[in-house]
């Protein structure tokens, strides 16, 4: 920097040099801050400075008796360095910390180096990630996270890395503007496709239910499928209305629209739970007990319970305008949904509720798969010996039980955009999967299919039949 005549840039670079004996008996602790730079740790110091913890392992592996520890704190905004091409994440306080010990590179540490980056509570939708600068990445270098573990906290984030180099804390937004717009476009197109195939599926189920003679269990299953697909249709319709009207409606109208969207989502979750319960009764309990007005009672639960939950949430004023923002407070999208002040309602009624349903349905799916395999081994099941039919039945049950919704739990972190794309596409195709599955099962060989379905559970003189 001095030779290049850019002495003014030294204001953004602060370095601490320490001569440390190789035979250290304790770890080396150093503090750093963007304004004061690095310094020796003062045990009485109670500031918001970050901390560096260098383990004894580093010094024991060195050959010389005395080594020089160099800790450098750089303000990359002033220096104009460490900028990745098309970087969307922000560097915390524009601060990069470089650590070198001796003259050789150090990596593969069993006891990692720990850097604590002090910060206030991070805004919503922001993910901290510990990274280091890799000059070999791309043409001009870039950030990598391999070898580093991120431990976020309320007052700071701890980075544990197995090597020494230049480190920082990247604040990655869950969504940027371009990704959000692309996702909204994909979701809007997917909703239109899903609504069309939901109508096809409901028409097909009603047609085969009225046209052909099925035993009562199969007729109940068809009624269940119609209600599930109807809830999917209403959910996609509510999303399209929400996307088109939010941001330009009266607050009360937005609250009603948010409650309607929440109601349709809970209906969809509830009907997937009822599909799992029905599958449990058919494959596990295998009881031929007649329940008076069974489908009507299922409808009371499937459409009534979500109304009760939404009514309670609406009574405490949970619904209104919800905006998705970037770290620099740029609004990505407006939605009529559960407001930011009542996010606990979202975590309980959506995340918690679906989490329980997903665990139950996956347990039922596992038991059903095991039961089907054992029945096929005894020859009790006819008509499903072809591998493609077995795979189709499994995929159809997977969609009926709402497994594609579980991808939303994987959208936390740096893979959010990719998983969100996958989540959006698969849930848009859910209605298509169900439609194809039902057509292959019930048509055109309806009599043959019914016969094979009626033998799935029949074993040791037990009754009932269903897919």
From TrEMBL:
One of its GO terms (biological process) is cell surface receptor signaling pathway. Keywords: Cell membrane, Disulfide bond, G-protein coupled receptor, Glycoprotein, Membrane, Receptor, Signal, Transducer, Transmembrane, Transmembrane helix. It is a multi-pass membrane protein. The chain crosses the membrane at residues 182-210, 222-240, 260-283, 295-319, 347-369, 390-412, 418-443. Residues 187-442 form the G-protein coupled receptors family 2 profile domain. Pfam families: 7tm_2, GPS. One of its GO terms (cellular component) is plasma membrane. The keyword Electron transport does not apply. Residues 30-177 form the GAIN-B domain. This is AGRG3 protein. It comes from Ploceus nigricollis. The gene is Adgrg3.
